[in-house]
TrEMBL record:
Family statement: Belongs to the Gfo/Idh/MocA family.
Occurrences of domain GFO/IDH/MocA-like oxidoreductase (ranges): 136-253
Keyword set includes Transcription: no
Protein's UniProt name: Oxidoreductase
GO molecular function, one term: oxidoreductase activity
A Pfam family matched in the record: GFO_IDH_MocA_C3
Organism: Paenibacillus rigui
Length: 333
């Protein structure tokens, strides 16, 4: 590619796009947001004006037909991820797709295959793992300071249950707390341990008031050596966003594990040998870092930090979690 910046288009005007990802791309070193599309052209026009985006379209197809767009960000509801990732790949656009990548592992596999076929990059939008905190955490673990890992606990909950029209509460759209926030501690445990779980057991509250999606789920993922992730996630519970890694000689606490506050709560706390210390981390925009990872991969040919097959692996775990919750049984992966 001859140009110096990756030219991004955005398919949809979702809150996460307007609030976080578009500003992140605009703050990145490698990208510019060149266009935005919505099925409601007026909404696209308003969002473009609000965020300083030069071009807007009244359909996703029109944006994909724009030769001045190199990559697209897809913040659409979960059930549309597969369709528009594949259509973007067919149009020769690189793709950053919001998490979860798909509704099932099989869909994620189709998305990966389509992007490989058309020679474009595919990344799943787990922004948290691009934050330098996770490299710091892995360095602490590798140093032996907390000993051998014995367990991980993660939680991500919020309460938005009164918003009855929210897409998170529509089954056919891929609603549910496991899809929306449970994916984070599951992804984080896989990242920290560097391995895939062997089995999943999950108990969930499926709410009749919310189209029978899981409004709360609690589970355990079994990893090698007797290590487990215990987690809970919810959309009708008080807010938490935490991760704890327990070792034989200490523990690591991450008070803001998946989103950042740009304040000392972003820091990591290590307790070992009876002493608790605070590890300062940079206050950086992990959405910008996420955009730069794809940008450098396209512009410079560097490998993506996280291969698209990671999205397939994570979806296999989510599939097992939902099967376990629906059948009230332990599911072997």
């Amino acid at each position: 590619m001859s140009q110096q910046k990756l030219r991004w288009g955005v398919l949809g005007c979702a809150g996460i796009a307007k609030r976080a990802v578009i500003p992140g791309i605009q703050q990145s070193e490698t990208g510019v947001v060149a266009a935005i599309a919505s099925r409601d052209e007026e909404k696209a026009k308003e969002t473009a004006a609000q965020l300083g985006i030069p071009t807007f379209y009244g359909s996703y197809e029109a944006l994909l037909a724009d030769d001045n767009i190199d990559a697209v960000y897809i913040p659409l509801p979960n059930h549309l991820h597969k369709e528009w990732t594949i259509r973007a790949a067919e149009a020769g656009k690189h793709v950053l797709c919001e998490k979860p990548a798909a509704l099932h592992a099989e869909e994620a596999e189709e998305m990966v295959a389509a992007c490989e076929k058309h020679g474009v990059k595919l990344a799943e939008a787990f922004m948290y793992r691009h934050h330098p905190r996770y490299a710091i955490i892995k360095d602490i673990i590798d140093s032996g300071e907390i000993g051998t890992i014995r367990g991980i606990h993660g939680a991500f909950t919020f309460n938005n249950a009164k918003d009855s029209n929210n897409v998170r509460y529509k089954q056919f759209m891929g609603g549910g707390s496991l899809y929306d926030v449970g994916v984070y501690p599951i992804s984080a445990a896989r990242l920290i341990l560097g391995q895939e779980p062997q089995a999943a057991t999950v108990h969930a509250f499926f709410s009749p008031e919310h189209d029978d999606v899981d409004m709360m789920a609690s589970g355990i993922l079994e990893f090698e050596g007797g290590v487990a992730l215990t987690f809970d996630c919810g959309m009708w519970a008080a807010g938490r966003n935490v991760l704890e890694i327990l070792g034989t000689d200490g523990r690591i606490e991450v008070p803001c594990a998946y989103v950042t506050r740009h304040n000392p709560e972003d820091n990591v706390f290590v307790t070992a040998k009876g002493q608790r210390r605070e590890v300062a981390v940079p206050y950086v925009n992990h959405y910008a870092l996420q955009a730069d990872d794809l940008g450098r991969s396209v512009l410079e040919g560097t490998p993506l930090r996280f291969a698209p097959t990671d999205a397939v692996a994570n979806m296999k775990v989510i599939d097992a979690c939902y099967t376990s919750a629906r059948t009230r049984s332990r599911v072997v992966l």
